[in-house]
């Protein structure tokens, strides 16, 4: 039984923040994996495959709204369904 046909294709740019224009609720119905430079990351908030970056939240720094600041990490990005 092959259920990959029912899953939507992963976009080039995807954000986990529902307020972002790059947020796609259909994609988040399935579990997604992200690798950066061949190593799987579990803390990715946003990614762009064509530009080669991911955004991860900083450990302690917060913005004025109380949200964690995002750090951009560059490299080879791969997105896949688990």
β-strand number: 7
Helices and strands, in order, run as EEEEEEE
Gross morphology: globular
Number of helices: 0
The gyration radius over C-alpha positions equals 14 Å
Approximate helicity band: under 10%
Strand content: 35-45%
Strand order of the largest sheet: 1-4-5-6
Which structural class matches the secondary elements?
Answer: mainly beta
Mean pLDDT: 90
Distance between the termini: 16 Å
Major sheet summary line: 4 strands, antiparallel
Describe this structure in words.
- This protein is mostly beta strands and 82 residues long.
- It contains no helices and seven strands.
- A four-stranded antiparallel sheet has the order 1-4-5-6, with no helix packed on it.
- A hairpin with a 5-residue loop joins strand 5 (53-62) and strand 6.
- It is globular.
Summarize the structure.
The protein has strands at 13-15, 32-36, 39-41, 46-48, 53-62, 68-74, 77-81. By secondary structure, the protein is an all-beta fold.
Secondary-structure map:
Layout: E1 13-15, E2 32-36, E3 39-41, E4 46-48, E5 53-62, E6 68-74, E7 77-81
What attributes characterize this protein structure?
single chain, 82 residues, mainly beta, four-stranded antiparallel beta sheet, 0% helix
């Amino acid at each position: 039984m092959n259920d990959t046909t029912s899953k939507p294709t992963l976009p080039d740019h995807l954000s986990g923040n529902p307020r972002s224009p790059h947020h796609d609720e259909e994609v988040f119905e399935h579990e997604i994996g992200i690798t950066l430079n061949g190593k799987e990351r579990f803390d990715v908030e946003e990614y762009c495959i064509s530009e080669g970056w991911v955004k991860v939240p900083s450990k302690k720094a917060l913005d004025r709204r109380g949200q964690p600041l995002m750090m951009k990490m560059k490299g080879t990005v791969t997105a896949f369904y688990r």
